[in-house]
Each structure stands twice: as C-alpha cells, then as structure tokens.
Design a protein that fits this description.
Elements (H helix, E strand, L loop, with lengths): L4 H12 L6 H21 L1 H7 L15 H14 L4 E6 L6 E2 L8 E9 L10 E9 L6 H5 L6 E9 L3 E6 L4 E7 L4 E6 L10 E3 L10 H12 L3 E2 L5 H11 L2 E4 L10 E2 H14 L3 E3 L16 E2 L1 E4 L1 H11 L2
Parallel strand pairs: 1-3, 9-10, 9-11
Antiparallel strand pairs: 1-2, 3-4, 4-5, 5-6, 6-7, 7-8, 11-15, 12-14, 13-15
Helix pairs in contact: 1-2, 2-4
Bound molecules: 2,5-anhydro-1,6-di-O-phosphono-D-mannitol (AHM) and magnesium ion.
C-alpha cells in the first residue's frame, strides 16, 4: 500500500484535530511544498555557479541566492499565504513576521530553513526543521512565539541526504516519508518510529571537549571505556536522524565560546525534543526537560542532550549534580 504524506496528514487531522477543518493540513502541505522547492535547489547546488552568469543571475534571469536565503524565502512564501497563519519566526530573521494581526490567525510556525548550512559546500547532508504552535487568545507577534516546547502541536524536519526524508509528529507518534523524485511525492516509509531504548553511538563535537563541563567529559570517557562508537556530522538534523533510527546520544554542551550552548531553543531543540519524546526518547538541557523551558527570547540558545532514554537519563543524572 502506498500512502502519501498528504493522505497521512489528512488522516491525522481527522483523527486528532476534528475542529481544524483543513487549515492545519494546509499548513503542513505548505511546509512539504517548501521543502520540495528547497531540495530541488540543493540538488543543483554545485551547478548553480556554473549556470548563473558571473555569479549574479541564473538562466531564468533571476538573481541567484545563497541556499539559506532561498530556503528562508521558500518557507515564508509557501506559508505566508496559508489561511489561519498568525506569525512566522525564522532563524534567519531578526524579528518574527506577523501575517495576521487579528484573532483569525490561529497558528505560529517557527523554523530553521537550512540547518547545517556550513555543510552545503562539502556535499554533506543538511536539513529544514519546523515547529507549529497555536496562538494563545489575545496574544500576538513575538509574545505568541515565546511558548514552551510542550505546547507544540506539530514538529518535524526534512533531512536532505542521499534521499530527502520528511519526519513529523502531531503528538500522536512519529512518521517518516521519503521523497520519490520521479513523482515529486513524499511516501510513507517509517510508521510510528521508535527510538531504541539504548544505542551504541555518541555524537558530540569533541574538538571542544577541553571546555565541556566536567560531567560531560566524564560521561564521554565512560562511553569510550564501554566501547561506544563516535559519529558527528555537524548537521544537527542528520545527527538527530541517525540517533532516532539507531539510538545513542547527541550532545551540544556549553563551551568556552558558547556558554549557553550553540543550538537554538525554538528552531532546533524544541522541535527535535518533541519528536524524541514522541519516539520514546528524551531531551534535556542538563538541568531540565527541554520542552519545559519557558523561552525569553526568540533566538535564545540552549545546551542540548537528546537521544535514547538510557543514555540521556544517565548523563542527566550527572549534569544535575
Ligand atoms: P546552523 O543552524 O547555523 O547551521 O548551526 C547549527 C549547526 C547544527 O546543525 C550543528 O549541529 C552545529 O551547528 C554544529 O556546530 P559545531 O560546528 O560547533 O559542531
Ligand atoms: Mg540550525
């Protein structure tokens, strides 16, 4: 049986959001459309310089854009016109974009348009991450964005790897779809994904280990003694996708240069924490559950420990002191 992401979203909406009457599925189809446009552009990444004349325009006469600018614009354009969208907040924009000031705008969508963008030039997997919240009554603009992660009604990502895979949850399990490039449709390939309870991999930028707090250094030492393997791609989406499928632990601790960690709470940690918990895994900042953090700024950063329950609980026991 072949199930497209569109069919799946409609089924989820009917089962879990009976009052949504199409606006929720319209948002998700806006997201899938934008990610198809982004992946099409990524697939031509090495060619764009060749096709564009003098780095300025492409064959259609359009000004060439950097991929992260293109990805951001694709998401804003595909979502901005959907009904019931109140606010869009992007890692690439200083301020959130208010689409609808009235009480009609129901949803807040937050995204990292192109995560791991330093990997574009070396042809390594990158991704898009998104999170959807409901706008609280009477609250608009930035205030509507500053909600703790447990209030997300949906979250997901696309990893642009050897194939493009869309993974999402509406709080009722995690589902994964692979893009069939021949027909341009995402097809269900992972039903009700579960993260292994434990996994033999740890993922961290060990180049900074001298400045990790002691509990992190001690724990990494323990994992080495136990014979764990190290994997670090440097694209959070790709590192998370592997962790979801194979289990293990991903860490971005506080470091010398990033005292609060490097990753963004709203665009990166919250959506992936939502997916991890839905898949039976865990996500904490070293002190508390990621989804319980009350954000105070839209670009706020956080340390992140995410992955299999056993490993995350073990390290969390050490970081809590
Ligand atoms: P970005 O959103 O600007 O691409 O930055 C986030 C990325 C993550 O994808 C990745 O996990 C991390 O930065 C890698 O950082 P580092 O190079 O410090 O290991
Ligand atoms: Mg990012």
């Amino acid at each position: 049986m072949i199930i497209t992401v569109q069919q799946h979203i409609l089924q989820q909406q009917a089962a879990h959001f009976p009052g949504a009457r199409g606006s929720f599925s319209s948002l998700l189809s806006g997201l899938t459309l934008a990610t198809k446009m982004i992946q099409a552009q990524i697939r031509r990444a090495g060619l764009l310089d060749i096709i564009g004349s003098a780095g300025a325009t492409n064959v259609q006469g359009e000004t060439q854009q950097k991929l992260d600018v293109f990805a951001n614009k694709a998401l804003l354009d595909c979502l901005g016109s959907r009904e019931k969208v109140a606010v869009l907040a992007s890692e690439e924009n200083e301020e959130p974009v208010t689409i609808d000031q009235s009480e009609v705008g129901e949803y807040v969508i937050v995204f990292d348009p192109l995560d791991g963008s330093s990997n574009i030039d070396v042809n390594v997997s990158i991704g898009t991450i998104f999170s959807i919240m409901q706008r609280p009554d009477g609250v608009h603009g930035i205030e509507a964005v500053l909600q703790p992660g447990w209030k997300q009604v949906a979250a997901g990502y696309v990893v642009y790897g050897p194939s493009s895979i869309f993974v999402y949850s509406t709080g009722h399990g995690v589902f994964g779809f692979t893009l069939d490039p021949a027909v341009g449709a995402y097809l269900l390939c992972y039903e009700n994904m579960k993260m292994p309870q434990s996994g033999n991999y740890y993922s961290v930028n060990e180049g900074y280990s001298e400045s990790f707090p002691k509990p992190y250094r001690d724990y990494i030492g323990t994992l080495k003694q136990r014979g764990y393997s190290s994997r670090y791609i440097g694209s959070l989406v790709a590192d998370f996708h592997r962790t979801l499928l194979k289990g293990g632990i991903y860490m971005y601790p506080p470091t010398q240069s990033h005292k609060e960690g490097k990753l963004r709470l709203l665009y990166e940690a919250n959506p992936l924490a939502f997916l991890a918990e839905q898949a039976g895994g865990m996500a904490v900042d070293g002190k508390q559950r990621i989804l319980d953090i009350q954000p105070t700024g839209i670009h706020q950063r956080t340390p992140l420990i995410i992955g299999s329950r056993n490993e995350v609980e073990e390290l969390w026991g050490m970081t809590r002191g």
